[in-house]
Amino acid sequence: MAVGATIDEFQDGAFRFTEAIAWSSIFPYVYFMLETFPGIVEVDIAFFAGLLIAVFTFCEFLSAMVWAKISNLIGRRYTLLIGIVGGVVSAITFGLSKSIVVAAVSRAIGGFMNPNVGVVQTCVGELAKDKEQQAKAFPIVSFLRGIGSLIGPVLGGLLANPVKHYPSVFQHNSIWEYYPYLLPNLVVALLSTLSLLLGLLFLKETHPRLAQKSDFGLKIGKSITSVLGEGIKWKFFGYSRLQEEDPVIEVPSRRRLEVEGSNVTVLELQPLQSDSLLDALDALDDEEPLQMPPKAFTLQVVLQISSVSLLAFHKVSSDILIPMFLAFPPVSLQGGGFGLSTQKIGLILLTQACVAIIAQATVIPLTVGRCGALKTYRLVLCIFPLMYLFTPFVVRLASPFPIIALLLDLWVKVLLSSTGYVCSAIL
Prior knowledge:
This protein is 65% helix and 6% strand. By secondary structure, the protein is mostly helical.
């Protein structure tokens, strides 16, 4: 059997890709955006920045079970497409926001209308039924989401406030000056719309009860591929979904043979079709009684879930605070922030994402393989508090060491968090 991933897995990954861009693209400019909102003083900016980022995930958490039920009623395909439409609406309204209330509501819409976390995983599991296939398919979704997290901060940092950064292209007294953070959100909406179109044309339904239902969008997509040529194969790395066939099972049957003039009884394997399976099972006398599966939520599992939840809690908290630290102006030579622009913040966050991707392929497998998952995980948890204590003081170093120390601090943290998630998954 060939192993790989079909276009459907890549399409599912594209939904997580655009979601990650929408999630992370606001990090470089959220501080400057909140500065323009009426009624928000500088000391409250960090709080409201955390609010805008947290409201998305909180609403996503509240709606997760609802979307699971909806996907069982209307199918995975239409559930994901509805979520993309909600993401487009959220991005555009956020870019047009002129107050904290409108911005928070737009982020809440994005969270409530996002079914990707559970439904995408379900789709991939239904497409790749074999364990070997799943080992190839699930990382593709995670990889594309990681790429989205890499692109998002760069996109937001480079496109925010275009009149200020690109005055020769974006004129004063234009819509770009009145809505300085609309451009990055329009790009996010455009990418989401492209993902929506690809989903309408090529994403197949995976729900077992609805998979054979006729769909107009898929018919158009099939027509497009047929016009482009029969040589186009919409699959990657060599496998597609397995056809449903009656399994052929070999079972032992008794047969009389003559061996050197004597009648003996030997066992011989014969193919058995699925409609004879019940008869074959009834014929087996020494069948072992079924055993109940072990409990899923053992003490070890509960402890591991609690531990990785705390890891995610302080990691995301750090992800929110760092852009504030980079944007906050220096109060004096001995305190404050770095006072960096959105462009520089985006590039710094880009380096962090690059380190995470490189570490996933090099340092992390080597470390976990040599030291073991448990020992490595404990080491990560011990180092993290020291890094958090170090971060506030990097700005006090003499130039040019503050930015160097900050980069090292961010790189070590992302290495620790990536290693921690891998170890948790193994444990």
